[in-house]
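A quick aside before the break. I want you to see a complete sequence-to-structure record at least once, exactly as it would be stored in a machine-readable document. Don't worry about memorizing anything.
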Amino acid sequence: MEVPCVRVAREAGEATRSSLADADLIDDTYEISVADGQLYIPITDPDAASAVLEECEIVPRTVTEREQQTTPADLLAFDPTYERLGEAALIDEDDPERAREIADAILESDLPAETVLNKASKVKGETRVRDWELLAGENTTVVHREYGCEFALDLATVYFSPRLATERHRVAEQVSEAQRASESASGQGPRADGEHAFDMFAGVGPFVIPFAKRGATCVGVDINAEAIDYLRENARRNGVADRVTAINDDVREVAAEYENWADRIVMNLPHSADDFLESAVTLASDDCTLHYYDIQHEDDPFGPGERAIRAAAEPEYAVTVETRHTVRSYAPHELNVCLDVRLER
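That is the input. The structure line, written in tokens, reads:
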């Protein structure tokens, strides 16, 4: 069967394989093959592979299927639901016996999982953390990799959702694109310190770090001191500490210090982002892109957010909604959405 493969010279193969593995992009269903001094590495997402590797050649190739690996479903009488986060598997089971059975199957399977955590509460409090039951492993700390970035975090003290990786990459890709478009339109060179990006609820840096890796100068603010400690660590891990400022505070107390500074603002705090729009307007430069996340009823998922943004920004800014994007289904009849909005003074 033909599958997309990264073709690379054999001498560069291990470095390439390692980069793809860190981003969880290798298709383990198939074997890596060698022919005429070239290595062919099967991949799951050609676009993501292109983003991770500075230079790569992606070609279709017929490769050999691997011998079937043992999955948790092979060991159980049902197909369990779980998420992967680094070498941890996350489950959500109310029945203790069923949770224990799933955890044992995960550990006995061929999944590269050393830790199994069961959700023991809903997301709660100002810092949006939850309680976890440790079914296997030593603690709740993990190292997660996505799209070439590495994030250390402790699930017991910070909020992080692996489900939003594709959405974060969608937004991060706009950083360099926006810079090129700005240069082309203005006829001027880029800022000496790159695009200015501000994440108002930064967490451990899942937006800030990829922005900085694309050359942006970033500020990340979060009320959770533990998250800010991890943001600083993750900036160092990914080699962008010189482009990241991490601030532990309520962003409403910080905005005045960065008035008219931000070319890009992320507001990923669904349910209550509208409470912070006045601060976003303070932060916005003369030409700013705002990524506003919301959760609304499916009958009108984008209207409330757009009306709130216009009420806060007009007439000081001309408001243009460039993208109305559905991120995922959140609950019955409710959608998690993002508005990509351009604010021009």
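Two observations worth writing down. DSSP finds ten helices and 17 strands in the chain. The first helix runs from residue 13 to 22. We'll return to this after the break.
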